[in-house]
Design goal:
Helix content is 43%, strand content 14%. The structure holds pyridoxal-5'-phosphate.
């Protein structure tokens, strides 16, 4: 049978705009593209400790065997959720199979018909997909623009107070495609003024900011003013899964109503043990090495006079705006040929004209490697 014409056309359009996605196996060069900020994904120490932990706990099973609400809630789950809740200074942590599932599950179930969701226009696809599944109305505000945010809230506050509904506000502590952070303290003060509930996605902040990498909200000491935080384990922790942090009631609510939590097989004991061991390996020493590299990167882009091309960031993600899919692909390819793994970020993933090279920094990059890749880049831009 012929492949549907409309779908074929969509693929052709992608091809014509140089934005057709395809899968490649990992490159062999120097890693400036993975989210493994602390090298935990490659850590044989974590691998071996996890293995030993499973043996010691007599959990020699390969899968969870069912939804957590049926047969899949093995004992490591509760132990690990307690550790996560304590580490993040919150009442409860509920583990989801991925950050995508956590955002989808939260936004599709928590905001109700008549409620309003206000979100940063650059929020991650998983947040926007969750919002689409919700019965609440949603409005975006300009990226990291707290003046516009307040305007959007004011436009809807009257309607909300009459119907006794809620406003939910969602942003990220580090934006995945540009590395920048919002003024979270200002956002908290606006939220308090209008009695808005805040949700913060800390995917790229865990393992990067705060004591032992606990995240930007805890670094700023604002975690108690936040309704829910989403932490994900596929980035700084180098493994897989995510958790929603919040109150006991939120934990109970999500377990009862969040469909991406209920209708899926739980994570295997191995996955949960890896999360637990990874948390125990977070240390200020490794964060210090990571931040030395971030500082070196910032010094070097200034020295090479290319800092104006980069989006402002103090995180592990640094984006150089190139503009145009073709040109961005071409420079990425040239850098890859020199042995540096850099991924071009193209439209439609980012806005047209804002196509970019995304540099991810790690504790295991050397300052020499950072200087070398930036010196190369400076010859191409
Ligand atoms: C901000 C943000 N939230 C959520 C996710 C999804 O997390 P996961 O990869 O665990 O599904 C990502 C990953 O790309 C992300 O960047």
């Amino acid at each position: 049978m012929k492949f549907p014409e409309k779908l074929r056309q969509k693929l052709t359009n992608r091809e014509l705009s140089n934005s057709l996605r395809s899968l490649n196996t990992s490159l062999n060069g120097i890693d400036f593209y993975s989210n493994d900020y602390l090298g935990f994904a490659k850590s044989t120490v974590i691998f071996n400790e996890t293995h030993q932990y499973l043996i010691d706990s007599q959990l020699k099973i390969n899968g969870a065997t069912g939804s957590r609400l049926i047969s899949g809630n093995h004992k490591l789950y509760e132990e690990t959720e307690l550790l996560i809740a304590n580490f993040h200074n919150t009442e409860k942590a509920l583990i989801f199979n991925s950050g995508y599932d956590a955002n989808l599950g939260f936004f599709s179930s928590v905001p109700q018909r008549g409620d309003i969701i206000i979100y940063d226009e650059l929020c991650h696809a998983s947040i926007r997909d969750g919002i689409q599944l919700s019965n609440a109305k949603s409005y975006k505000f300009k990226h990291n623009d707290t003046v516009h945010l307040e305007k959007v809230i004011k436009n809807h506050i009257e309607q909300i107070s009459i119907s006794n509904s809620e406003i939910y506000l969602v942003t990220e502590s580090v934006f995945s495609m540009d590395g920048g952070s919002p003024d979270l303290e200002k956002i908290i003060s606006i939220a308090k003024k209008y009695k808005v509930r805040i949700i913060i996605d800390e995917a790229h902040s865990l393992g990067v900011f705060g004591n032992k990498g606990c995240g930007l909200s805890q670094l700023l000491n604002i975690e108690n003013d936040i309704f829910a935080r989403i932490v994900t384990f596929g980035k700084g922790l180098g493994c897989h899964g995510a958790a929603i942090l919040g109150s006991k009631k939120l934990y109970q609510y999500l377990m009862n109503f969040s469909r991406s939590f209920i209708y899926t097989t739980g994570l295997s004991p191995h996955s949960i043990a890896t999360i637990q061991v990874a948390y125990k390996h977070l240390s200020n020493d490794i964060l210090h090495t990571l931040h030395k590299n971030i500082d070196h990167f910032l010094t070097e882009i200034k020295r090479l006079n290319i800092d104006h091309l980069f989006i402002k960031s103090k995180s592990t993600i640094h984006c150089c705006i190139i503009s145009g899919n073709e040109k961005t692909i071409q420079i990425a390819k040239q850098l890859q040929e020199k042995g540096f793994n850099i991924k071009p970020i193209l439209s439609p993933t980012v806005a047209k004209g804002k196509e970019r090279l995304r540099f991810c920094l790690h504790s295991y990059n050397s300052t020499k490697e950072i200087t070398a890749v930036l010196e190369q880049l400076a010859t191409f831009v």
